[in-house]
């Protein structure tokens, strides 16, 4: 019994581990709005992210099949990122969670403004 409990995985924890953290959801939100985005454009839209953290987050999202990385063999080299079909499949659940968050913020009378991405979709 004890061994089974250690091997058990909560699907919600698994999902949150894939997209959780400070930067992964903002990256997904940006990629959801555009067909593909170049690295430097992503960096400019993510105020405060370091190159190392952006690279690491993109690599993890790519390894988990959420983000596609396309490298073009040109001079200068060009790399673009986009959401995969799997990555796009999480957008509907995230929209529902966002709506819940907006409702909860209103109920709790949170005075914090919405982020730029959410403000632009109102």
Brief sketch in words of this structure:
Pfam families: HxlR (PF01638). With 122 residues, the protein is mainly α.
What is the fold's blueprint, element by element?
Elements lengths: L1 H6 L3 H9 L4 H10 L3 E2 H7 L5 H13 L3 E6 L5 E6 L1 H4 L2 H17 L8 H5 L2
Antiparallel strand pairs: 1-3, 2-3
Textual characterization of the structure:
The protein has 122 residues and is mainly alpha-helical. The protein has one domain (2-120): Winged helix-like DNA-binding domain superfamily/Winged helix DNA-binding domain (Arc Repressor Mutant, subunit A, Orthogonal Bundle), CATH 1.10.10. 58% of the residues lie in helices and 11% in strands. It has 8 helices and 3 strands; from the N terminus they run H-H-H-E-H-H-E-E-H-H-H. The longest helix has 17 residues, at 91-107. The protein is globular and about 55 Å long.
Supply the key terms:
mainly alpha; 122 residues; three-stranded antiparallel sheet; Arc Repressor Mutant, subunit A; single chain
What's the overall average pLDDT, rounded?
88
Portion in strands = 5-15%
Order of helices and strands: HHHEHHEEHHH
Oligomeric grouping of the chains: single chain
Major sheet characteristics: 3 strands, antiparallel
Separation of the first and last Cα atoms: 49 Å
CATH H-level superfamily: Winged helix-like DNA-binding domain superfamily/Winged helix DNA-binding domain
Helix content: 55-70%
Which regions contain 5 or more consecutive residues with pLDDT less than 50?
none
GO molecular function: DNA binding
Protein name: Transcriptional regulator
Keywords: DNA-binding, Transcription, Transcription regulation
Domain HTH hxlR-type: 10-109
């Amino acid at each position: 019994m004890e061994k089974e409990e250690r091997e058990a995985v909560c699907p919600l924890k698994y999902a949150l581990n894939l997209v959780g953290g400070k930067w992964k959801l903002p990256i997904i939100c940006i990629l959801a709005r555009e067909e593909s985005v170049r690295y430097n454009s992503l960096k400019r839209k993510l105020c405060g992210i370091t190159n190392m953290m952006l690279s690491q987050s993109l690599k993890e999202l790519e390894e988990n099949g959420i983000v596609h990385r396309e490298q073009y063999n040109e001079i200068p080299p060009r790399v673009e990122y986009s959401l995969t079909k799997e990555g796009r499949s999480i957008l509907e659940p995230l929209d529902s969670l966002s709506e819940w968050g907006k409702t909860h913020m209103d109920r709790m009378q949170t005075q914090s403004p919405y982020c730029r991405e959410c403000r632009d979709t109102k």
